[in-house]
Amino acid sequence: MYASAAVNPKAPSGELEIIAHRGANNMFNEHTLTAYKLASDANADSLEIDLRMTKDNELIALHDATLDRTTTGSGAPEELTLNEIKQLDTIAVFGQETYKEAVPAFEEILMTFEQDQHYYIETRLVGGEAKMEEPLIDLLQEYDLLDSKYVTFQSFSKKSLQKMQGFAPEIRSTLLYGTDKFDLKDALKANVDVIGIESRNVTRDIVDELHQQGKEIHVFFTDERTQLIEQQRVMMYGVDGIFTDDIDFTKRVIMQ
Question: Where is the GP-PDE domain (predicted)?
């Protein structure tokens, strides 16, 4: 398993990797510098970053295909320039308070944390094409981060992962499977280090078979109502990483 504690002195002890899903998104607006700083302060092993590409081919941190849910704007990020997106704010409500903060360019995240964090970066196709991979590699090289100590690549797209592996074969790669789209035979033969599975598709037998093939299993969750209970269940099966929306809770489960 990738020993994040060895390269990140702030990482908690233990073998299970704690991946801050969109930053500490239970405490602040997802995919913002503040959310990532809170995740860093909470000693997450990795900061999970979803990438989108703007009209002028810049990379930003954003999960959805549109700006509608998490920002004051609307439409696809590919329809706006980075400068236009920087005029918008992310927006979220916690308790009785509404919080706003700018959508960060990916480069801003790298400038903020440099080599102090491990970046768990999700790539995706842009209009069906693998367009974001080369500028991503260029940025990581510019900030001296193209190293397995600092970066993991993940994607639902084999095409994107294959392109990333062509640029940087030494970097750990994770193939993600959507909910109820997991295919064990496909996962076993996939040329990747890690398989990313939605928790409801995780069984002990699946974990054992993937481990026998030398692959790690990282689990993500799509149901907020059951996520915390599901974390406890999949940890019992010996999974290697958790994409968590509550870092402190995950740490407590590990310590039990």
Answer: 16-254
Instruction: Give the count of beta carbons closer than 10 Å to the beta carbon of residue 121.
Output: 25
CATH code reported for the domain at 4-66+103-255: 3.20.20.190
Strands 119-122 and 46-53: parallel
* Residues 166, 185 contacting (CB under 8 angstroms): no
Calpha distance 85→256 (Å, rounded):
43
CA distance 62 to 58: 12
In the chain, where are the structural domains located? 4-66+103-255
Q: Is the overall model pTM greater than 0.90, yes or no?
A: yes
Tens-place pLDDT, residues 170-202: 999 999 999 999 999 999 999 999 999 999 999
Rounded CA-CA distance 43/12 in Å is: 7
